[in-house]
Hints:
Elements: H1 3-6, H2 12-22, H3 24-31, H4 36-48, H5 54-69, H6 79-90, H7 92-107, H8 110-114, H9 119-126, H10 131-140, H11 143-152, H12 155-166, H13 173-186, H14 201-209, H15 213-226, H16 228-236, H17 249-258, H18 261-267, H19 273-281, H20 285-297, H21 303-322
Helix pairs in contact: 2-4, 2-5, 6-7, 9-11, 10-11, 10-12, 11-14, 12-14, 12-15, 14-16, 15-16, 18-21
Amino acid sequence: MPDKEAAKIKGVERAAILLLALGEKDAAEILKHMGPKEVQDVGLRMATMTNVSTAQMEEVMSSFVSTLKGETALGLDSDDYIRNVLTSALGAEKAGGMIDRILLGRNSKGLEQLKWMDPKSVAEMIRLEHPQIIAIVLSFLDADQAADVLSVFPENIRTDILMRVATLEGIQPAALQELDSILDQQFSGASSAKSTGLGGIKTAADILNLLDGAIESKITDQIMGIDQELGQEIQDNMFVFENLIDIDDRGIQTLLREVASEQLLLALRGADEALKEKIFKNMSKRASEMLQDDLEAAAPVRLSDVEGAQKEILSVTRRLSDAGEIMLGGSGGEEFV
Length: 337
């Protein structure tokens, strides 16, 4: 592979190549310091990675060494420093929730432990809590995990919980610390110094976005029936599969590198022609022709399978957006000025 091709490797793939090169012992030590979502993403990429070329390996290692040489021994542990850097890089609105997660998650034990549990176990642990406590916990989790947890709850309380997520306007440190301590006592907590920005319209929309299609539709209708203004705000912040058409070509190309061809084939079975054309034009001619042939020859599939594939691609899209690698358009995206 030419050097210019090796240089295109980035993100999770770079991390996977580096960990594979370091060996089992050192890779394991590094993984101990990563969050559950990072471990899952990097681990999956390591498990599926084949035929890493010498050029790829050399480029990743060279970049890593250069980055390492640029590091200093300065102790930059100040909360204010972290807030200022992330706010400058991402903007106040986008950085807000991420900052709170970083600063809270750094000191949390009970709440952070939930991220390593399967959805049914999380739901079982908090099912007897007040709906407001459940809403706080879901707000702390990543949207895809929160959606899975919410799906486990009985149908008659899902809407109430999501509406509480949407109307959550921050949590006092003392209350969050108490919740963290209670959870920590159950497995084995502190809080950040400032009021956190967990919850809100966007968090509720992200969770709703990743629910099964039938559950999503039912909850949306129920929220609209209870509070039409709140329901409309949530809908305005949702990013659905059809909104992929609003991502620029470069962003689509980045996304396609992260999505398996089988998953894309299944997801496009439920897409409109305009979105399909956008996908086709951002692939190589050969890959585009093969995908179109596969779509025409594919046997009928269940709608739930198509929606599941679309949800998985949306999850990848949000991860790339959070990492700053793509910019979302549409109603749930950021505006350009």
